[in-house]
Design a protein that fits this description.
The chain has 9 helices and 9 strands. The strands form 2 sheets. A 5-stranded parallel β-sheet has the order 2-1-3-4-5, with helices on both faces. A 4-stranded mixed β-sheet has the order 7-6-8-9.
Length: about 300
């Protein structure tokens, strides 16, 4: 297995995670395939936030299988995390419920599950690729694994690691928060990304510095619920009253990094726009003065039915 390609559907968070997957594969000495190059491995990073997104994800899987008959197709992302049966007709693909399963799965595919001499730093060309007898194995979560084993104080533990570069564009997305427990009536995300986590400030600063050094002069901070950075829930009524605004503190520190020409924020909720945030944007000329806020209804009754905060 020498070449790979990644197909990404969905939001900025998915695009960031696809960059993590790209880096993971390149660290294992695989190269990204060109337009006319034979592909050995295809990764489909799916989305299911709407019916259309789910449909496009399934279409991408089938298209990848048809165009790359001899390639291994790995399916990750939100659609594989869904509790629906939308992928029941997908066969001959590796379906991973969690992206954290990806490193071990890749090592089994690339180096062989039983070859302990192989590792992801040095590719042993004599390693045999394992025969996958049943590729359609949507792994059930380990019910005995404690949440505290992977998450501590709300901080994100990410087995895919932080990015050293962002390939393909000068603007880099940087995920700093994940998960939602808001349960708006129309939204599937709280059933998909259930862990409310965030990266510690020092890790974000280090990752941003690496991206700047790699040539990404513009960084876009993103998350599933960006305004909940620093909290273990997105429900504001559960936030400590005297808690400092961690997001404002973070972007103020990031704005001072040498070489960062532009810092953007992805979607925020209206209530996330505090006086402190606006003051921070005004103080730093490299923070782009643009806010994307969802106006979902002008009716209090409709907002209540939607369970909007």
């Amino acid at each position: 297995m020498k070449t790979f390609t990644i197909n990404t559907l969905g939001c900025k968070v998915n695009q960031y995670e696809s960059q993590q997957i790209r880096q993971l594969l390149q660290d294992r000495n695989l190269t990204q395939a060109g337009p006319k190059e034979v592909v050995d491995l295809v990764v489909i990073n799916t989305c299911c936030v709407t019916h259309i997104a789910s449909s496009k994800s399934r279409q991408n899987i089938r298209k990848a299988q048809k165009q790359n008959a001899n390639a291994v197709v790995i399916v990750v992302g939100c659609l594989t995390s869904d509790k629906t049966d939308e992928l029941q007709n997908i066969t001959d693909a590796v379906l991973l419920r969690s992206k954290e399963d990806l490193p071990k799965t890749l090592d089994n595919l690339i180096f062989g599950a039983n070859n302990s001499e192989c590792n992801h730093k040095t590719v042993n060309r004599t390693c045999k690729e394992p025969k996958i007898k049943h590729k359609n194995h949507l792994r059930q979560p380990d019910q005995h694994k404690k949440v505290s084993d992977e998450y501590e104080d709300g901080h994100e533990h990410d087995d895919l690691g932080t990015l050293r570069s962002y390939s393909g564009q000068s603007r880099a997305f940087l995920k700093i928060q994940d998960g939602c427990d808001g349960y708006c009536t129309y939204c599937i995300i709280p059933n998909i990304r259930t862990q409310i986590t965030y990266k510690p400030k020092d890790i974000v600063i280090k990752e941003a510095s690496d991206l700047i050094y790699a040539g990404n002069k513009e960084i876009v901070l993103t998350g599933i619920f960006l305004g909940a950075y620093g909290y273990e829930t997105v429900r504001r009524k559960k936030w400590p009253q005297n808690h400092s605004n961690d997001l404002t503190d973070l972007i103020g520190s990031l704005a001072q990094l040498p070489g960062l020409e532009r810092l953007r924020l992805s979607s925020l909720e209206p209530a996330d726009v505090t006086d402190g945030l606006l003051d921070c944007i005004c103080r730093h000329g490299n923070i782009v003065p643009h806010l994307h806020l969802p106006l979902q209804s002008g009716s209090q009754a409709i907002l209540k039915k939607m369970c909007r905060q």
